[in-house]
Amino acid sequence: MILIWLISILFIGGILAWASERYNQNYPRNIALLTVLLDLLLMLSILPSEPITSEWITVFQIDWIPRFGISLYFALDGLSLLLIILTAFLGAISIGSAWNEIKTQTGFFYFNLLWTLAGVIGVFTALDLFLFFFFWEVMLIPMYFIIAIWGHENKNYAAMKFFIFTQVTGMLMLVSILVLAYSHYAQFGSYSFKYEDLLSVSLASSLQFWVMLGFFISFTTKLPSVPFHSWLPDAHSQAPTAGSVILAGILLKTGAYGLIRFAVPLFPEASLTFAPIAMGLAALSILYCAKVAFAQSDIKRLIAYTSVSHMGFVTLGVYAWNEQALQGAVMTMLAHGLSAAALFMLAGGLQHRIHTRNMGDMGGLWTQVPRMAVVAVFFSVAALGMPGLGNFVGEFLALLGAFQTNIPATVIAAFGLILASVYSLWVIQKVFHGEYSGEHFDEAKLTDLSRREMFYFGAMMLGLVWMGMYPQSFLDLSQPVLAQLLSSSQGVVSNLAGIQ
Amino acid sequence: MMTITFADLIPLQPLLIATLTVVLVMSAVAVKRNYVIAYSITLLGLILAGLASFYLMPNANYQVTPLLIINAYSLFFTGLVCLTAAGICVFCFPYFLDLQDDKEEYFLLLGLATIGSIVLVSSNHFVSMIIGIETISMSLYGMVAYPVQNGRYAAHALEAAVKYLVLSAAASGFMLFGMALIYAQTGTLEFTSLTHSLSNDGIGESFSITAFILLFSGLAFKLSLAPFHIWTPDVYEGSPLPSTIYLATIGKAVIFIVLLRVVVSTDALSLQSVSNAIALIAVVSIILGNLLALLQKNIKRILSFSSIAHMGYLLIALIASLDSEGTISIETITIYLVAYIIMSVGAFGVASAYSSSDKELDNVEDYKGLFWRDPWLACIFTGMLLSLAGIPLTVGFIGKFYVFFAGVESELWGLLLVLVIGSGIGLYYYLRIVYTMLLSSNDNENSSSGIISKNFATHAVLALTFLLLLLFGVYPAPLTLLVESISSSIL
């Protein structure tokens, strides 16, 4: 029942925030923040005090569309819990980043923000595939509005591209889901969209490959991975700061979550044969997008490309499909959620102050905004994978696990770490070092981070240090889930390995 | 040998009520012209007819004369048609209020068209089918050309009506020729006795194929499927909005029902060439409809091209009926038609709330900034457009889900791919309208601000469609169960 509350609190909060606008322009943001904090508290209250033994922490199930055996089936395990806590945490942060930036139509803005979060939490907890698809699409529409209304100069193009990419590939996934559900009908005599039921469906191997591909394309578009990544730089650079934070921090993780939860476990055989291609794409993503990041002069586009590059480690980890690699993928998801969100907030903060994202116009800002510079260095260093911070743990584990299954792809991907340090330091140098010239912008607007901003950057720093220094507290939550996923596909994998 | 007993009249109640309504309106007009009275009688009569059919629906199964079959399925659509017509009637009232002409007869035509629709959804015989189709078409010619005395828009209305008249008559010719060939082959005009007797007996298979292709092209014209769609955008654009709504919703839905009946009861799809032709028409309609909609600047034209694509989606479900088990494809068509009626009435309804017979607000540009000017109607419009695009939370998604399901069940991979591509293109023009509404309107105050419809009933109908849109989008179980239970009765 608590899962329903987690989602409906956000839906209701969104409506309240919208309705409250007519009384006072400042009410929506307060209501939104309270709603998200309430949600976060609820989530922390479910945190199990002792190691999880049963498969799900909590389950909710009730019939929804009996015609097709579709039910409102939500369940929470360690993996979902980590991700929804990340969602609520970044949700609160993004409200913070929008606090002073969004000045028009505030009610509708916070409505969309909360509904996106609700959709994401639905995605992370839904275990009926129809329901999953439902939320998968529900989170799109408010995000479209956020980009299309409060975005920057080229917002129509960016919002449209974001929507069409995700929606069209989503329909491919819908076809795949329906094939599974119909196969369940053909094999067991009843329609079902339940995760456990569909796990037991066996498909002919040629069909299985195509059905798996439907999921893979949909998830890697969201993730994103080369060659489906081209929507992301546009969406990120045009979205308002809060939109970028949610996109980079949370929405991208739904794709990774889908790969771990659905794409591989539902089609273990097809995924195993497909793994070399997926890992190759991941390595390509890592290097290609790191390279492209150099060519950007727009700071948000640059961060967007580095996001794609980092998410490559997640794909790499997932398709290596062993415990270390999966742990690495999960840690990368969490750590990248924080570091990318922080970097986008810094870029957004800069843009809010000096009205440009062009790095050519910046330079030598260190003396003007020392606090911001220090924060930027911290998160850049985190993103490049400095030991002691969360990203290092994730990427290291992912590479370690991947090395056991696919050495060439891993070796190539490892070069991404070098490129990452080069472009991260390059950004710092371009923006904060060098000659200061205030001629491209209004110097009076260039103020250092306020206490409020320092507070939420501090919270994210704390999170990254925690992940880096004591990752065990996160690994403990996700370990039983991953072990379960691995063991259920173990039979198939070892069978195939035997044949080869 | 045909006698009608009193007991036969009971299942005919909806039809009789609708007919009585038309007679009453006509008499009222003859006694004294009064717009409000004509409107009230029509509205009341249509609502009554609708309620009567839903009341009769459980356990209904009557064959009234060989011409009409009254069962749960036909009564469901009778009810839907009557209530939709009542909704359109509500939109008419403010729209024609200021028309400088006799305006009471519009309700007469609306009622007549509804009678035709009721006959058509109950028809079980080629004779009642042609009667139904012609009754609808005849009334629609009048409805399309209605504001013909009215200055600026007159030329368009007349042009639209003549185009529709000429092409529609030609299509009826094709259809009649097809029917004649079928009669020559089988010696009967009843749908049910045609079953399975087509390819084996008579003159031969190629004869049946010709007959069905002719029949189908006539119906495809009425459904504005490509390549028989050329009239659609012009007629949609030239007609007064209430007529456009009637043509786009009821006019399409009832024809599709009769097509479904013909196909299901004659097993026409088992002829390979017929099903190939239908598949080809589906592909062309989806691609062409969506692509041409991209180029339009007028909302009525955009929706007309999108309706071509939507009819194409429906054809996928129709083709799926060939080798799917059970009633899934019939359910798909039923659900999709319900969804299509809800969202089309809503989308055109918003446009009609801003329009009158003097000035129609049908350019996309006119809706710039609507979201901030009139958030309520903009929300409804956005909901309808997202539903047409098939986005969840709306009934359009449930419809599209069914189409996908029917396609998967019959393994129509190629058609599904076309559906995905078509829907992808479709997103672009729907979102473009949504985006235009989101723009700030400060920079063009002059064009359209200030006109906000104040008619309460119009808003009530729009609110109702919006409610149904969300209700069936979020909780479709009642609708799906009802449709599942009535769909078996069509077989």
In short:
Chain A is mostly helical and 500 residues long. Chain A contains 19 helices and two strands.
Report on the architecture of this protein.
The complex is a heterodimer of chains A (500) and B (491). Chain A is mainly α. In chain A, 75% of the residues lie in helices and 3% in strands. Chain A is built from 19 helices and two strands. Chain A has helices spanning 2-20, 27-46, 78-98, 106-125, 129-138, 140-150, 155-188, 195-199, 205-222, 231-238, 241-266, 268-294, 299-320, 323-354, 370-384, 390-405, 407-432, 451-469, 472-499, and strands at residues 58-65, 70-76. In chain A, helix 13 packs antiparallel against helix 14. In chain B, 74% of the residues lie in helices and 2% in strands. Chain B is built from 22 helices and two strands. Chain B has helices at 6-9, 13-31, 35-56, 72-96, 105-121, 126-144, 151-186, 191-194, 205-222, 231-238, 241-248, 250-266, 272-294, 299-320, 328-353, 370-373, 375-389, 395-409, 413-438, 445-448, 456-474, 477-487; strands spanning 61-64, 68-71. In chain B, a hairpin with a 3-residue loop joins strand 1 and strand 2. Residues 446-450 of chain B have low confidence and may be disordered. The interface between A and B is medium-sized, with 33 and 31 residues.
